[in-house]
Amino acid sequence: MLGGFIAGMACLAVTNASAGLVIVKAVFGDLSNPAATADVTTNVAAMVQNDELSVEANITTFGDPAFGIKKQLRVDYTIDGVAGSKLVPENNRLKITTRAARLVVVKAVYGNLSTPDATADVTTNVAAMVQDDELGVDANIDTFGDPAPGFKKQLRVDYTIDGVAGSKLVLEDNRLRVTVNDKPGLSRLVIRKAEYGNLADGKVTDVTALVAGMVVNDAVEVVINNDLFGDPAPEELKRFRIDYTLNGEKRSRTLFEGSRLRISTNDKPAAVPQPGSSKLVIRKAEYGDLPDGHANDVTELVAAMVANDALDVKVSDDDFGNPEPAALKKLRVDYTFDGVDGSKTVYAGARMTVSAGDLPAPSSQWGSHKLVILAADYGDLPDGNAYDVTEMVAAMVRGNNLKVMATNDNFGDPAIGAKKELQVDYSFNGKLKSKTVEEGQFLTIDAASEEPYQWVWFAVLGLLVITPVAVLIKVRRKKRRYAFQKY
């Protein structure tokens, strides 16, 4: 009877050994050179706990079978008898669990995808890199070898998430990422169409699949350039146009070469234009080495940034491209607000703001040109780097008054890390004056302080006119009182 019990237990042990997670083989080292690897199957198998494995792939855990060379850990295993494999680079954690995988790599190909003979099937490698239903892999020859020497390569991965098929593609030397949030049909960000090149002449490349492959967790961020999309129009001004759906709302954007595309679910809803009711109209906008150097016409871009009859944007190459890399760039916007024309210019790094507050103030009865800005500088004064902000400051004058804070948001940053000042030279009623304030402080010029005697004259005039009138009123009221008492 005891023998039968022991035999039964042994049979049960064998059955359990084939169930759950079983480590078949584990190797650590330079996997491209078997002589520079170590068999670590026993070590890894001992780390399995409750049918789960979590192990750091490093020399502390396994020693160093390939000194000075980038190593990997590869683990072949079975779960309930079904074979699988995982691989991670050195200094990463490898995890295996018996729960059903949501992300499954169906096929992965690396190389010159336009020439099938110049590609390599890397499905097994990529599938082995999935960890906790997430995939992150660098598409380069270090990871996959070089099936197309001298050619620009791509990595394409077809996968399923909860049984729903999807696909992503990235160019060589970029990172491809897939998470369960990329499940087709559930994405809040959907790329409908993307083109790059000379949009006006039709010399473009369709980069829809490439951009869609860069979406991770319903967000995408990428610098628009030839390295990413190729050069469909050499030596010509190129732009990038994207049509997409975000949170069910269809949108479009156009960016210059060198700009940075950022889209995420945190983006504000697009402003809905009301025909005939817009107070702020962007007539023209240019960004670059103004006034005489190379510049991009960014009228369309700036107009698209207007919301609720206001414009507020930090000026940078990310939004407007880089038409003159070595130059100090500015953004100039000519606009109409409530039928009144206006213009503003700011340096790169400053904020361009246009709103109802930028309407010209009504002229005073004493004239509208008493305050004249002669010169304005912002930076590491007096001898360090500084910007000439005369035009900007002059545009801020309202009714012979000026109040402006000396900040990088207003004027850009000509001296990063240095304590900056704003100095304004001006004339008021023909008298030359100057004011200087430190960064973060307000510089104020107001008519009341510039014309103190004018206000004294008003006070004297008031006494001369108002006092006799008051006396006359008092006498008349007294006479009425006397008359009332008499009757």
Q: Count of DSSP E strands?
A: 30
Strand content: 35-45%
Radius of gyration over all CA atoms, rounded: 36 Å
The percent range for helix content is 10-25%
Label the overall shape: elongated
Low-pLDDT stretches are 1-18, 273-277, 361-368, 469-487
Spatial order of strands in the largest sheet: 2-1-4-5
- Intertermini distance: 139 Å
User: Structural class from helices and strands?
Assistant: alpha+beta
Mean pLDDT across the residues is: 81
Major β-sheet annotation: 4 strands, antiparallel
How many helices does DSSP assign?
13
How many discrete structural domains?
4
Main features:
487 residues; alpha+beta; 4 domains; 4-stranded antiparallel beta sheet; disordered N terminus; disordered C terminus
Layout of strands and helices, then pairs:
Elements: H1 2-18, E1 21-29, E2 37-39, H2 41-45, E3 52-57, H3 59-62, E4 72-79, E5 82-89, E6 92-97, E7 103-111, E8 119-121, H4 123-127, E9 135-139, H5 141-144, E10 154-161, E11 164-171, E12 174-178, E13 189-198, E14 203-206, H6 208-212, E15 219-223, H7 226-229, E16 239-246, E17 249-256, E18 260-264, E19 280-288, E20 295-297, H8 299-304, E21 311-314, H9 317-320, E22 330-337, E23 340-347, E24 351-354, E25 371-379, E26 386-388, H10 390-395, E27 402-405, H11 408-411, E28 421-428, E29 431-438, E30 442-445, H12 447-450, H13 452-486
Antiparallel strand pairs: 1-2, 1-4, 3-6, 4-5, 7-8, 7-10, 9-12, 10-11, 13-14, 13-16, 15-18, 16-17, 19-20, 19-22, 21-24, 22-23, 25-26, 25-28, 27-30, 28-29
